[in-house]
Amino acid sequence: MRLFLLPVSTRRTLIYCERVQEQVSGSKPPLQERIINKASTTWAGWEKAEKGWQKKLTVYGNQVFKRIPFEEWGLKTIPPATKKRLEDVDNGKLKVECYFPGAFLKESKVLGLLQRLATERQALHRKRMWQCIVWAPVTIPFALVPVIPNIPFFYLVFRAWSHYKALYGGKLLEHLTAHNHIKTVASAKMDEMYAVGLISPTREATREATVPTRDEIGQIARIVETQTEGGKEDAMLLQKWNGKLLAEGFNLPEMEIEIERAVEQAEKDIKSEHELKEEKQELQGASGKVADVKVQETKK
């Protein structure tokens, strides 16, 4: 099983797990996977509708999905911590490697970061999961509405399942880190993709760019570090177009949307933080001017 630790910015990191195929040859996929595939197919069909409630639902639904923190989406890619899976890990049947860009993330920080990602949201996911489970039966009367499905019920079921996946994905990651079952791998390929993405303005330019040398990668990493002003500021490390390139580089097409979502959220948060800081500075400047005026009036 491969984990990918993807620093989105200097403060926020996406964890992504390569999808584990557990289906036995010739057998049907697990029930959970069949339900998910059916839901995905149905949703994709509704997205293609030109109008109607299906189209409106997917538009609003996709907006809701964008607001779900990318940290939750990342934990959901990790298989749940079932009893059998934990035994397989402890018995050495399930090997786990974690790839990360060593030039942009120090190896000494990797295990600590994995531990934090595994545990920091567990209480939240547990609380929200049970809230959704409790409220789901309350929405059953909405099923009496003709034609339109019971949207509130399905939403709460989806969110309960989502929080469950994130919670128990985090528990597996916590177990892996606590028992030292993860082999960390500094990926030169990831270093190259990160560096090229940072110096290229578009995806096309990234594809055409020459592979940077180790010295050039190190120089780019140092430039990013200076942008943080000693850790005071958050600086982006990934661009949206990096998602497709990283996904292609590791032959993981599902990774693309996770990276793009994470980049979009991180960029939005950094922008909001800068705007808030500028607004605060303007208020402080205005307060200073008011204070000066009062002093002058007092002197008069």
Automatic annotation (TrEMBL):
Keyword entries, A-Z: Membrane, Transmembrane, Transmembrane helix
- Residue segments, region Disordered: 270-300
Regions of biased composition (Basic and acidic residues) lie at: 270-282, 291-300
Cellular component terms (Gene Ontology): mitochondrial inner membrane
Segments traversing the membrane: 134-158
GO biological process terms on file: potassium ion transport; proton transmembrane transport
Asked whether the keyword Transmembrane is assigned, the reply is yes
Q: Membrane as a keyword? A: yes
* Source species, domain of life: Eukaryota
- Name of the protein described by the UniProt record: Mitochondrial K+-H+ exchange-related-domain-containing protein
Q: Which organism is it from?
A: Pseudocercospora fuligena
